[in-house]
Specification:
The complex is a heterodimer of chains A (470) and B (516).
Chain A: E1 22-26, H1 39-42, H2 54-57, E2 63-64, H3 72-76, E3 82-86, H4 88-91, H5 100-112, E4 117-118, E5 134-136, E6 159-160, E7 185-186, E8 190-193, H6 202-215, E9 219-221, E10 237-241, H7 250-255, E11 258-262, H8 267-277, E12 282-288, H9 293-300, E13 307-311, H10 327-340, E14 348-352, H11 358-367, E15 371-374, H12 376-381, H13 406-431, H14 436-439, E16 446-448, H15 449-461
Helix pairs in contact in A: 5-13, 6-13, 9-10, 11-13
Chain B: E1 2-3, E2 9-10, E3 27-31, H1 40-44, H2 79-82, E4 88-92, H3 106-118, E5 140-142, E6 162-163, E7 175-176, E8 180-182, H4 192-204, E9 209-210, E10 227-231, H5 240-245, E11 248-252, E12 263-265, H6 272-278, E13 286-288, H7 298-311, E14 316-321, H8 327-336, E15 341-345, E16 354-355, H9 356-361, H10 366-379, E17 387-391, H11 397-406, E18 410-413, H12 415-420, H13 444-447, H14 452-476, E19 492-494, H15 500-503
Parallel strand pairs in B: 8-18, 9-10, 10-11, 11-14, 14-15, 15-17, 17-18
Antiparallel strand pairs in B: 1-2, 3-4, 5-19, 6-7, 12-13
The chains are: A alpha/beta (470), B alpha/beta (516).
């Protein structure tokens, strides 16, 4: 039996109480103070077990970090003194894109490595902007394979970051006439990268590098963040250069399997320089996701580059415009430009910015990406609350700016990526797709809001008069 | 007993109070220490918000969940203004922001608890017809009816029944007196008392309920004529006699909550009773693999259908599928394989635990699937021969009516029945000991929180309240039977497809930003 890709998940407890969604409100003046049937003692989930005694000391009310919202304490208290509110601290988590529920789920996955599971159906909006306006398909009969419990054990999530070998050419004596290009495969369609605008310190970099090594993927790293402690992880690092600093880091290029190069107008020279240092290195070009992205992709596909890395802003939006398009539309545009230029098979596309949930990875691939680059969630896995105090040089409430244990940090990231990988497999299994590479650009395995509305509601209600989702 | 034209007697409505001491309502009334216990508020309030007993003169905590709120201000019994000591305060209950979600809003939950308690539509100003999801049913409205179309007749004369067998193949018609039947929730996923109560309610309402995949507990046998046996991929608990018992057998190919993923009962829930029922090992997680490993085609599927039909010559066959992009082809394939009922389970529904990624992302919402399949079956000339049942995200009586107008014959209800039993939709059906409210649990201590009589009547009450809404809709459009509503999408409008002026005539879609 072939060796299967396996992510070693292990519980990694949070260092701080995760910020819970709910807070209790108690009207203490009505409380008997030592009620023998106090609902706090009866909590099914035992969330008060460490602190119900504070009733006698009349301590401050505590946040309910692990409250499961069953309402029994509210409804069973003999005096009716319990009520609750949304924890005000929970409201402050993240921003309009990185919502508090997304952070909460990332924390849970980083802690346990498990897929978030809940009962009682879906509870969100019918449709929303971005990736939330498409659904993935499923098949009633087709499965990746009938082997195993669900057939999912054999789903291949590999993608390549090396460019494809063009059709082989042979000499008359049947010896190979065409050049055999190096192949570099990633067993999981994601690459790690630490977000540049949040806290980065050596311990965090080491955590991410270690996670990349265990996951057998790569960490994109700035040369300034590189130190000799990262030498054991060199095979899993992709140093990111600009044309100006290539020559300063020849040793780093030599020890790397792949490097990233920032796009500029004289990129060909820079590519040449890198190939001079190490001819068979895998080369990724870092390009802003803006209006020129698709045409640049087409131009670069003619050069000796392997992968194009387009970076959007933190919210997955197009750069350098007042009316940005979202990642989903941008991926489609670039992918289709290359398809129509007959060069899509030659080169790989990866995207960063705004990849916040496992479903974003699957949906990006459906839209046409080969893989995605995960950035901000790595810091959230380390308990970052996206309060952005660090951008103002203020202290970090999650103490990420203090030294963290790289073992713990890497395990949190591994757990998160493990949970994402499992979710990708779930979605692919439902679609009956056996290989992530076959999912690329496979929009036939998805359903889009606009299409469904037109197809199902158009014949009934006529022409849609409102654009958007609200 | 109420009698309708089919001579079926709908059950009586009986008041069934909340199980808990402190009911949650839309409003709170607080009484402060200035109260002199004069008893005026108790005398005034016709809704029983202020309880008072002859032998106990001290003030009691108000039953504020019965309070009709600020609209009471227009009456002469508004306790807040009439209190001589101004000891009472009325507020919108702040706890509402912690209850509910985009699909099941806090008001929709409270309203359904109220319906389950009283059997009537709530008198409190609760929005129970529309959720906050911003799409699908929440943006579809029934057209403003023509006054001349109104048919003035009693609820007793309105036919809300549906026929499950339209094939004319000599098997029983199986008529349900309401256009709903209960969705499959297995032994193991819900408490036994809940299962039995659902079956009892189904019998009283002359409809059906479904075993789910966990086997057929002997406690259901007295209600066997109203219990569907589900055959799913794990084949847990399926026996020849349970197929012989049943009026209908349901093949579950997929379910909306986790389309294409199969089922997974966590080891914690596999108690000795569950293990015995499913013929498995205590404490071991149980998987229902996806899909049927013996089905690769419609022909294979037909073998399954034929197998069941051969065992029981009177049984109907339902095929439950999810809503992929080719759901229309799947439906027509099921019909040609011999199914009497094609049951579409949309992606946003489901009662059991499922990965969040699946519930949100896999397969299409039921609102899209119903007209797609309805029209395709019509084009194929098969629509009159098959009963199309929809489920997955159908929350209230209006959703049922909208689903039928979009093209379904009837619907399957799961979550709303649990809400009638005071589910708060916390979503922790699977964790630890299971549902803290005693509904979706196999824990002995929690399981006894639900009494069968109580639960039966709550479910009956909710459906009787729903029936009042269906009857009113049918009267408004001059229809005498809910069968006449099937496929009447001309009676519907969608807010996003209307001009602004036209749109302003309809209730706008609720658009509150919620924290989920």
């Amino acid at each position: 039996m072939p060796k299967k890709y396996h992510i070693p998940i292990k519980t990694a407890d949070p260092r701080h109480h995760p910020i819970g969604k709910y807070a209790t409100v108690e009207f203490r003046e009505d409380c008997a103070g030592s009620c023998r049937v106090c609902v706090k003692k009866k909590c099914v989930y035992g969330i008060f077990k460490d602190n119900y005694l504070h009733m006698s000391t009349m301590g401050e009310p505590e946040y309910l970090y692990a409250c499961h919202s069953c309402f029994r304490c509210v409804q069973e208290c003999t005096k009716g003194i319990f009520s609750r509110v949304i924890n005000p601290e929970y409201r402050t988590l993240g921003d309009e894109y990185w919502r508090s529920d997304i952070l909460h789920r990332i924390w849970y996955q980083a802690h346990t490595g498990k897929i978030p599971v809940s009962g009682a159906g879906y509870r969100g909006p019918f449709v929303a902007a971005g990736f939330d306006s498409m659904w993935t398909d499923m098949s009633e009969i087709v499965r990746p394979t009938r082997d195993g419990i669900h057939g999912r054990e054999y789903i291949n999530t590999c993608f390549e970051i090396s460019r494809r070998i063009s059709p082989l050419k042979f000499n008359d004596d049947m010896s190979l006439a065409s050049e055999a290009l190096p192949i570099l495969e990633n067993p999981i369609p994601l690459i790690l990268q630490l977000p540049g605008n949040l806290i980065i310190n050596p311990a965090i970099v080491e955590s991410a590098a270690k996670a990349a090594q265990v996951l057998d993927t790569f960490l994109i790293i700035q040369p300034k963040d590189y130190s000799d402690t990262l030498l054991p992880y060199a095979r899993n690092l992709i140093p990111s250069f600009t044309r100006a600093n290539i020559r300063n880091h020849e040793a780093l290029i030599q020890q790397s399997r792949a490097v990233e190069l920032a796009f500029d107008n004289d990129i060909e020279d820079a590519i040449h320089n890198i190939r001079e240092i190490k001819s068979d290195i895998i080369l990724m070009i870092r390009i802003p996701l803006d209006a020129d992205a698709a045409s640049r992709a087409l131009e670069l596909s003619a050069l000796e580059v392997d992968t194009l890395h387009f970076y959007a802003d933190d919210h997955g939006n197009e750069l350098n415009t007042e009316n940005p398009r979202f990642l989903k539309e941008m991926i489609r545009e670039i992918h289709l430009k290359l398809v129509n230029g007959f060069v899509r098979q030659r080169i790989n596309l990866v995207f960063s910015g705004g990849i916040a949930m496992a479903e974003h990875m699957a949906k990006s691939i459906i839209c046409g990406a080969d893989g995605v680059i995960v950035d901000t969630p790595l810091l959230i896995a380390l308990e970052c609350r996206l309060c952005y105090r660090c951008r103002e040089n203020l202290s970090c409430p999650a103490k990420i700016d203090n030294t963290i244990d790289p073992q713990w940090g890497s395990q949190r990231m591994i757990n998160l990526m493990g949970a994402w990988h499992n979710q990708l497999i779930e979605v692919m299994g439902a679609m009956g797709i056996r290989e992530a590479r076959r999912l690329r650009g496979e929009v036939g395995r998805s359903m889009w809001f606009e299409d469904l509305e037109m197809e199902s509601f158009g014949p009934i209600f006529g022409k849609r008069k409102i654009a958007g989702f609200k | 007993m109420k009698k309708n034209k089919n001579h079926f007697q709908f059950p009586k409505i009986v008041q069934v109070p909340d199980r808990f001491r402190n009911s949650i309502g839309k409003y709170t009334i607080r009484r402060n220490s200035r109260c002199i216990s004069c008893g005026l508020c108790a005398e005034l309030c016709p809704h029983g918000v202020h309880p008072r007993y002859d032998i106990f003169s001290k003030p009691l905590r108000p039953k504020d969940y019965k309070c009709i709120g600020f609209k009471c201000k227009e009456t002469d019994f508004f306790c807040i203004d009439r209190c001589p000591e101004q000891a009472l305060t009325l507020r919108r209950n702040p706890i509402l922001e912690t209850l509910g979600d985009y699909r099941w809003t806090s008001e929709m939950l409270i309203a359904h608890w109220d319906m389950a308690e009283t059997g009537n539509l709530p008198i409190v100003d609760l929005e129970y017809n529309l959720g906050n999801s911003g799409g699908g049913f929440d943006k579809i409205r029934f057209k403003t009816p023509e006054p001349g179309d109104y048919l003035n007749f009693d609820d007793e004369d309105v036919d809300t029944s549906i026929t499950l067998n339209k094939r004319g193949d000599g098997r029983p018609d199986v008529i349900n007196s309401i256009p709903c039947y209960g969705g499959g929730m297995s032994y193991g996923s819900t408490a036994l008392s809940v299962m039995v109560a659902r079956a009892r309610a189904a019998k009283l309402l002359n409809t059906l309920t479904c075993t789910g995949e966990g086997g057929y507990p002997k406690e259901l046998i007295p209600y066997a004529e109203h219990v569907i046996t589900q055959i799913a991929t794990g084949l847990f608990g399926v026996r020849e006699e349970t197929i012989l018992f049943s009026p209908m057998v349901e093949f579950k190919y997929a379910q909306g909550a986790k389309p294409g993923l199969g089922g997974h009962l966590l080891g914690d829930k596999v108690t000795p009773e569950v293990a015995a029922m499913r013929e498995t090992v205590v404490g071991n997680a149980l998987f229902s693999p996806f899909p049927f490993h013996s089905v690769y085609s419609v022909e294979d599927h037909k073998k399954h259908v034929d197998w069941v039909k051969e065992i029981n010559p009177d049984v109907l066959v339902s095929v439950k599928v999810s809503t992929p992009t080719d759901v229309d082809m799947v439906a027509v394939g099921s019909f040609y394989a011999g199914a009497h009922v094609v049951h579409l389970d949309g992606s946003y529904g489901g009662t059991g635990a499922a990965p969040d990624i699946a519930k949100k992302n896999i397969a299409m919402p039921i609102e899209y699937a119903i007209p797609k399949v309805h029209n395709f079956l019509k084009d194929e000339g098969a629509r009159d021969k098959v009963c199309l049942i929809a489920s997955g995200g159908i929350r209230n009586a209006l959703d049922v009516a909208k689903a039928i107008a979009l093209g379904a014959d009837g619907v399957v209800i799961g979550t709303a029945e649990l809400v009638a039993l005071e589910c708060v939709r916390c979503g922790h059906c699977e964790s630890g000991r299971g549902c803290a409210r005693g509904i979706a649990t196999t824990d002995h201590e929690l399981g006894i929180m639900i009494a069968e009589d109580w639960a039966t009547q709550r479910i009956v009450n909710m459906y009787m309240a729903w029936r009042k809404q269906w009857c009113e809709i049918l009267r408004q459009y001059g229809l005498k039977s809910i069968k006449e509503l099937v496929g009447r999408s001309d009676l519907l409008v969608h807010l996003d497809y209307l001009d602004e002026e036209e749109r302003s005539k309809y209730q706008p879609a609720p658009q509150a930003e919620l924290i989920i």
